Amino acid sequence: MAALTPRPLVGITGGSGINLEPMLSKRHASWPFADCPGLASATAPGHEGRFIHGEAAGVPVILQQGRLHFYEGHDYAAVTWPIDLLRDWGVHTLLFTNAAGGLRASVSAGSLMPVAAVRTWPFRHWPRRPERLNPDLTLETGTPPGCYWWVPGPAYETPAEVRGLQRLDGGAVGMSTAPELQRSKELGLRAAAIAVITNTCGASGPLSHGHVLEQARGQSERLRQILTEHLPRLASR
Question: What total of structural domains would you count in the chain?
Fold first, then answer.
């Protein structure tokens, strides 16, 4: 791929159903995952699978619209390959967003929880899986920071699993972000994460991916506002 001008400083990954493109004040180029050597196409609903190079709040950025997951059949190298690409394109700071289930009253549906720590569920397809990861930055959203629990998916957590995660001080639970955060640390990149809470875990009634996408879309505007406010600080080394 040709060199990007201006060189992006910040990479932002949008989770399931999260629309970040309207935060761009300038849009230079876009390309699908399929055009990137070694990168698989996104298949999960709500994950467009493309990169957009532009500017927001005067900061050169790359938006990653969608991501890859273990539950799609990918291994660690495939799930985290976008991080290597973003580094090669000039990104030094990464911001991960995700759609997640809330595990405590203070992170009910509609909350945007800053991720203070990430803990990982045992999973045999992740070699050298860390039990805990700490983001380099925590962003203010109006919701208290909390611990994000990563699980491999694709099934939602059972009531017993939810109770177990609550006893382990979990604030939110989801199926992404942890592998990417681990890879960013391996590459020496700064990273932060925000969990978009789309549902309350353990609440009565069925939960569907369609419901998650609808809730994530509904919170996208507020998330874009917060990210835009933080971008100048994220761009500074």
Answer: 1
How far is residue 157 CA from its own chain's centroid?
19
DSSP states of 96-138: EEEEEEE-SGGG-TT-EEEEEEEEE---TTSTT--SEE--S--
Q: Is 5 inside a domain boundary?
A: no
CATH code of 172's domain: 3.40.50.1580
Helix (H) or strand (E) holding 200: strand 190-200
Strand partners, 32: 50
d(CA 59, CA 79): 26
Which of 73-77's residues contact partners 24+ apart within 8 Å by CB, and which partners?
A: 74/40, 75/125, 76/125, 76/126, 76/127, 76/179
Helix (DSSP H) and strand (DSSP E) numbers for the chain: 4, 10
Question: How confident is the model over 108-150, as pLDDT tens digits?
Answer: 899 999 999 999 999 999 999 999 999 999 999 999 999 999 9
- Model confidence over 3-55: pLDDT tens digits? 798 888 999 999 999 999 999 999 999 999 999 999 999 999 889 999 999 99
Retrieve residue 19's tokens: 């629309």
